[in-house]
Amino acid sequence: MAGGRRWEAMELDCLVNIFQRLGIEDLTLGVPFVCKSWYRASLDPICWKVLDFQALDFMPWSNFSKRFMRRYSPQHFSFSGFMKFAINRSHGGVVELRFPLLIGASLKDLVHASNLCPRLKIAVLPRIMLEDEEHIPELVGKWKDLERLEMESKPSSFSEIATQINLNCKSFTGLRMFGSIKKEDVLAITKSLPKIKYLCLSRSYLCKKELLAIVDGCRELEKLIVNDCIGFEADEEVLKRASAITTFEHEGSKLYDDLGYDTDECDIHHVRVI
């Protein structure tokens, strides 16, 4: 409108305040190509503190990949390259990093993120190759400010991960993973993460004995989510022992699965792909 204020004339800090609420796709393919002032604002590291790659399709034939190729003309497009592009724009200020679920990520991607995102508070890790799981504890231990860790499956190195969190991540309060939760896993949680406030083990094999050990050993739990688990039913004893937990979700959990198993012999039936 004649005489009205123009968007491109808005103060830079105001634009940054708005753009930091946008997703990566808008920051990459939309905002920078509107005008020069929007482009400058989109480069502010504050806009890149939260990197959620889960909503994007990194397949070469996807609309996002094709649009990125047209806009930036790289020699080739890959998740690894795009992740480095986004982390570089953050100037090391990433506080939340969510890896994509479908294509996963390589060990090199995790190492790169661990080295260049020292201020990370929330990490959502993808599935990685079994032979690479032994490296996760060292990588997680570098995130001194880590508050919450989510993993798409329980890695074989979980006990070592919990130890590293206990030693290095003094603000840690939340964990999500699923798989076959065994005695050694429960011991790792209660011994290394006794002050945890949020724990989600939904879609896991979790027997009543181990569930109660978690309830008794993690006295500061405020939210425990064990929906759709196999190995226990929320009977009177379970509900009574968990009554001090503010939020205790157990919908869909049952003692046996559809094949009649009630032990972790059937791990393959309980570790499900999201």
UniProtKB/TrEMBL annotation:
Residue ranges of coiled coil: none
Domain F-box span(s) in chain numbering: 12-49
Protein name: F-box/LRR-repeat protein At3g48880
Classification lineage: Eukaryota, Viridiplantae, Streptophyta, Embryophyta, Tracheophyta
Highest taxon in the source lineage: Eukaryota
InterPro entries recorded: F-box-like_dom_sf, F-box_dom, LRR_dom_sf
